[in-house]
Design goal:
This protein has helices at 3-19, 50-62, 71-93, and strands spanning 33-37, 66-70. It has 97 residues and is mainly alpha-helical. It has one domain. Strands 1-2 form a two-stranded antiparallel ribbon.
């Protein structure tokens, strides 16, 4: 990735963090912050380069689907989503229709 793209992505990350309040939405932590899609959008964006990932997060922000979580809260949320997903898949798999 070009140096300009990396610098642009760093500026965008700082801007998004500032816009969203620079603290974890759940616990208020100010370190170890990560972007999180409120309504999950899969994990494909994690494979993008930094600038493409920032474009993805900017789009999520415009759709009111972006928040900041600390690493710990992000892990908890992801675990909850996975457990919930498994639960509903199990329920759906046992339906007679």
């Amino acid at each position: 990735m070009a140096k300009y793209q990396k610098e642009w992505a760093k500026r965008q990350r700082k801007l998004l963090l500032w816009f969203l309040g620079e603290e974890c939405k759940w616990c208020g932590a100010k370190t170890g912050l990560e972007f999180d899609c409120i309504k999950p959008r899969g994990d494909e964006h994690h494979k993008f380069d930094t600038s493409a990932r920032m474009c993805f997060y900017r789009k999520q922000l415009l759709q009111f689907n972006l928040q900041i979580l600390c690493e710990s809260c992000h892990c908890k949320k992801t675990s909850q989503e996975q457990r919930s997903s498994y639960f509903w898949e199990e329920i759906a798999g046992n339906q007679p229709f």
